[in-house]
Amino acid sequence: MSALSIALVGCGKMGTALLRGWIDTSVISHVDILEPEDVGVSSPLISHVRNANEFRPAPDHPWDMLVLAVKPQMMKTVCDSLMPALLPGVPVLSIAAGKTLASLKSYLRAEQPIIRAMPNTPAAIGKGISVAVASREITPGQKHIAHQVLSAGGKLAWVDDETQMDAVTALSGSGPAYVFYLIEVLAAAGEKAGLPPEMAMILARQTVIGSGALAETDKALPAAMLRQNVTSPGGTTEAALSVLMDGRLQQIFDAAIEKATARSRELSR
Predict the structure, then answer these.
(1) Which residue, 161, 115, 119, 174, is CA-closest to 139?
(2) What does pTM read for this prediction?
């Protein structure tokens, strides 16, 4: 695989996560970044400008792909500013929640090759998961470029049905926040059970870290089997699960994913 020249528009949390993945895996030969704020990553591979009027590919670094990592509410304004620099054949990869292929085409060109993707923040350490859908203009070669760009941050899956992307956003795009909140909830419960706050947080955090690592190591085992392996009949885990598995937790997550999915749909309008 040859190293890529990438244009990155927006370098917030998700843009930075992708950027770190590209540098760590040597996916890129060069990246032009358009970001009004400071970029929190230092590398000789980076060229950073703050103004769209200065955002152009260098003659020796034509863009293999342009990555849009801006907030959905800013997308139309940003795309308008990019038109002088963006050639019709350059593939565009958007990671903006809720922005459909059709809406992106309306901001750019009807014939622009576009990929809509949803990564998540563990991409910064190569442990993310991305899901992508391509417009019909995307060629196999451009799809391969997108694969390099997104898989630098972890796993990648493709879907043909774009309507699934709202649920993808709700589950895996927002999912790390749910897991981090679980750490907070476990630590708070530990405190109420009598543990010092610092000890409760250490135990909660490392338990989630270790459990995730175990799930990755034993990926052939279903999650239900991993749970059962921890649960002894009549033991403490079974006592806790009698509360957690009474249906309320599933209802809460159903409602949370439903609300996030609906918000993703709203952002597309």
Answers:
(1) 115
(2) 0.88
